Amino acid sequence: MTTTKHIATVNGFTITQRLIGHKDTYFVAHRRGQNGATDTVFTAKRLSYLENKVKDISPVG
User: Fold this and answer.
1) How is 1-58 classified by DSSP, letter by letter?
2) Cα–Cα distance list, 24 to 20, 32, 49, 54 (Å)
3) What does the pLDDT average to over 3-16?
């Protein structure tokens, strides 16, 4: 069973939480590029690591 929950939008990235089974959870950040394709995807076990990573990247536009 996989459950996805929207957490936040930071610097153009959509951050979601993915729960796999009953115990394993991780966070995913992705955003769309200029042409509509997925630009960048990051994954992390801790939300704070992911937020720090996406804050350092310039916004699309």
Assistant:
1) -EEEEEEEEETTEEEEEEEETTTEEEEEEEEE-TTSSEEEEEEESSHHHHHHHHHTSP
2) 5, 27, 17, 22
3) 88
| Look-up of token digits 């990051």 | 42
Task: Tell me the Cα Rg of the chain.
Answer: 12
Of residues 24 and 61, more confidence is placed in 24
Angle at 10 between CA 61 and CA 42, to 5 degrees: 90
Domain extents in the chain: 2-53
Residue 61 has pLDDT above 60, yes or no: no
Cβ proximity of 50 and 57 under 8 Å: no
What pLDDT digit, counting tens, does each position of 24-59 carry?
Answer: 888 898 887 767 666 668 888 888 888 888 887 776
